[in-house]
Amino acid sequence: MELICDSPAHKSVPDKYVLPLEKRPCSHELLEDLSVVLPVIDLQGALGEGRRQVVGEIMEAGKEFGFIQVVNHGVAEDVIQGFREVAAEFFKMPEEEKLRYYSSDHTKPCRVFSGSLTSHNDANDIRYWRDCLKLRCYPIDKMMHQWPSHPAMFRECLAKYAVAVQELARRFLQLIAKGLGFDNQDFFEGDLSGGETLMNVNYYPPCPDPSLTMGIRPHCDRHLLTILSQGDVSGLQAKHRGRWIRVQPIHNAFVINFGLQMEIVTNGLLPSVEHRAVTNSAKARMSVASLIRPKIDCTIGPTPTMFNEETNPPKYKDFTCSEFTEAYEAAAGNREAVLDFFKIHHTPS
Ligand SMILES: O=C(O)CCC(=O)C(=O)O
Ligand SMILES: [Fe+2]
């Protein structure tokens, strides 16, 4: 049993990671030029008189791309780099230290898994070039004792990072609430964003031939909001008008994207957009995704101010967060199939 990062350097891609032609990175058009660039928004202005303008920029970019990069976001550089360093050290530890956390049980609060260890034993045995440490990371007092105790600074650095990212999420959701015209700027606080925050620490070792593999399959995040530190190595691509665009790495920036539940809450206004991560032959890449989630027993559905029975009827019915999880699993994460579970089919009158 070994993770991809622990296997001897590969000279070629082992057969089990070679994707069927239609699933390879080049199978859909990648926009090579920079004619479409994901907007980079400076959050500094949101603290003062520029707030209205920043809100406008976020809404415009959010509706168009479902993805935004933010800089001057208030999370200190040493907090980001501190956690990134200790997380990278985690993947460099001896194999047995990491494999202590290996589990295929999704309910575990802290687990390691890998494309190398997934096995479906059937013709669809598709493997991705990724090792992952998945954690429940917020609220920290409840979660901290379950995090890896090594490297020695892991818990301390993660605690600082998790608190700072949660605060960024809170501030960002206030801007979204304003952009949606809600009276209550804390609209998302409590039920809608108060579930346990999950974190994917994705580690993509160098891959000898990135054209044959994928680090993470095309997917939409399912929760409310994702706050991603993608680091300095490129790899993230987002779907835009049927084509893939590269999300350019910006040092210390965060990429923020909407989950399917945000799309539903806003009755389709803020879309959850498909994205994927390709591999890289020269460098290992590590991304850290914090997934802001509703409380498990919370009811989700289009917010009444987001629809109008006559001109813009609700697209989805209400459901609980746990019903959503069941539907997501039944639909194997397929965007349209998940949304279909909750779609209201209006008949023309
Ligand atoms: O590695 C990346 O940039 C993307 C990670 C991602 O999409 C996820 O963890 O959900
Ligand atoms: Fe994702």
Molecular structure report:
The protein has 349 residues and is an alpha+beta fold. The chain has helices at residues 51-65, 77-92, 95-99, 140-143, 154-179, 260-265, 321-330, 335-342, and strands at 40-42, 67-71, 110-114, 131-138, 197-204, 216-219, 225-229, 236-240, 243-246, 254-258, 275-277, 285-292, 299-300, 319-320. It has one domain (30-304): Jelly Rolls, CATH 2.60.120.330. The strands form 3 sheets. The protein has an 8-stranded mixed β-sheet. A 4-stranded antiparallel β-sheet has the order 6-11-8-9, with no helix packed on it. Strand 8 (236-240) and strand 9 form a beta hairpin. The model has no long low-confidence stretch (mean pLDDT 93). Bound molecules: 2-oxoglutaric acid (AKG) and fe (ii) ion.
CATH topology: Jelly Rolls
Mean pLDDT: 93
What pattern of helices and strands is seen along the backbone? EHEHHEEHHEEEEEEHEEEEHH
- Number of separate structural domains: 1
CATH homologous superfamily, by name?
B-lactam Antibiotic, Isopenicillin N Synthase, Chain
Q: Characterize the largest beta sheet: strand count, sense, and whether it forms a barrel.
A: 8 strands, mixed
- Ions and ligands: 2-oxoglutaric acid, fe (ii) ion
In the predicted model, the low-confidence regions spanning at least 5 consecutive residues are: none
CATH class equals Mainly Beta
Integer-rounded radius of gyration: 20 Å
Helix content: 25-40%
Rough outline: globular
What CATH architecture would you give? Sandwich
Based on DSSP secondary structure assignment, what is the total number of beta strands?
Answer: 14
| Biggest β-sheet: strands ordered side by side in the sheet | 1-2-10-7-12-5-4-3
Number of helices: 8
**Residue share in β-strands:** 15-25%
Separation of termini? 60 Å
Structural class: alpha+beta
